[in-house]
Amino acid sequence: MSWGFLRDLLSGVNKYSTGIGRIWVAVVFIFRLLVYIAVAENIWKYELDEFECNVKQPGCENVCFDHFFPVSHIRLWALQLIMVSTPSLLVVFHVAYRENREKHHNRKLYKSLGEIDGGLLCTYLISLVLKTGFEIVFLFLFYKLYNGFKVPRLVKCDIRPCPNTVDCYISKPTEKMIFLYFLVATSGLCIVLNLSELSYLIFKYSIKCYLKSYVKKHQ
């Protein structure tokens, strides 16, 4: 899969972000996207082929693998990357709307197209809420689907067509668990950054409104 579109999206959003938002973009791009492409994707590449059970009953390994890994870690991680990045499109679309509006009126309507104020501030706040929500939802999914953030070395399976309770072994469990912890840590860091940026923008806008009303009152 080509991740060029996500790289271009993050680069575009970076122009209209606050300082905290730029840190978030760097974390997503370096510690999540590049790690996914360079390392993690290869670790889970042959997970079904390397999943072994101590019986050779046709279909047993497949049904056991499907039971313990209903959704592949790596595919769920890829979906998470896409979902937490796409709300940033709202900001890009809003800036594009401002550009088209200025072209249509043939005059300057905004001090700066990418300045986070007015309607763009609301759009930016909505995108932050959505990103934080997606992060939390996916962390919850990881936790529920895999009974915690762990990859066991051995799982016992008694699902038909397995003839009895069989032992199945997961390949590279320690390596997979390390990257799963890394995923959880980077997701947690992104949640903290999103909440920090949300708090910062709300506080900044509140101070701005208070100062405006104070000056207006004394004038």
From TrEMBL:
Any idea where the Connexin cysteine-rich domain is? Answer: 134-201
Transmembrane domains' residue ranges: 21-39, 77-97, 118-143, 178-203
The protein's matches in SMART domains, at most eight in alphabetical order, are given as: CNX (SM00037), Connexin_CCC (SM01089)
UniProt-annotated location(s):
Cell junction, Gap junction; Cell membrane
> What Gene Ontology terms for biological process does this UniProt record contain?
cell-cell signaling
The family database entries (PROSITE patterns) matched by this protein are listed as: CONNEXINS_2
* Keyword Cell cycle assigned: no
Any single GO CC term annotated in Swiss-Prot or TrEMBL for this entry: connexin complex
| GO MF term (any one) | gap junction channel activity
Q: Which residues form the Connexin N-terminal domain?
A: 42-75
Tell me its family.
Belongs to the connexin family.
The subunit field of the Swiss-Prot or TrEMBL record says: A connexon is composed of a hexamer of connexins.
For this entry, the protein name equals: Gap junction protein
Origin organism of this chain?
Answer: Phaetusa simplex
- Gene name tied to this protein: Gjb7
